[in-house]
Design a protein that fits this description.
By secondary structure, the chain is α/β, with parallel strands linked by helices. The strands form 3 sheets. It has a 9-stranded mixed sheet. A two-stranded antiparallel ribbon has the order 2-3. The chain has a two-stranded parallel ribbon with strand order 6-8. Residues about 1-40 have low confidence and may be disordered. It contains 7 helices and 13 strands. It has 2 domains: about 1-40; about 50-270, Glucose Oxidase, domain 1, CATH 3.50.30. Helices cover about 25% and strands about 20% of the residues.
Length: about 270
Amino acid sequence: MCVAGCEQAVRQALSRRGFFKGAGATAAAAFAATAIAPEPAAARTFTRAVDLTHTMSPAFPTFFGTPGIEMQRQFSLKKDGFNLYWWRVIEHAGTHMDAPIHFSEAGATVEQIPAKDLVVPLAVIDVAGKAAQNADYALGTDDIAVWERRYGRLPEGCCVAMNSGWSKFANDESKFTGRDVSGGLHFPGFSPEAAQWLMKERRVIGIAVDTMSLDNGASKDFKVHYGWLPSGRWGLENVANLDQVPANGATLVVGIPKVKDATGGPTRLFALV
């Protein structure tokens, strides 16, 4: 039997013990949540990756009259326990990068391009209809203006890609090069005026084409190359599947081998959409 006031004292003691017990449990749970629980995985900001790369092979069209890649088997699994080829590669064949040094005396070589400049917003300008009517079509400032009226200002630090529809001809050398009876080439590219405008009016880090050259095939002076690359920017040629990515909103990943002093090189390109 409890003396007077005993019951109230016991209730208060139990209440205090319960409070501290509960508070301790709450604190322990909070500690566990912050100190033990793993960090949540970063949310993916894309739903698919589009391969923008043609398969490299000796049959892929080049300017040079020789295969862009030659492969010689050095070891075989049956004989040596593993497979290995020696490669002989032209830097500027297949889907590839033109580094700034390609057309300048002191521009950056491939290994000097910062990684942050190889993962960039992608803007795709579709000129396929115009190119179908004129194989020598050169993407101009009017095409850029049309794109910006529809999608807004070009993203900061982006790559601007020309989709001329030429990618589908990559397995047909005569059509892809557009070589005529006199040896002249005919395929679309950027105009020098468009390249200059992008350098002066927008912060664009790279341009890309689905043809063999940043300049169109009919060019004899390569003004786009001589203007764009010495400015410290890069270019991509023979890009595939630009018709499979949106005009705006994708992220371009440029997987260029980090080779010392290289002026360019075969490149694996992805668009994250």
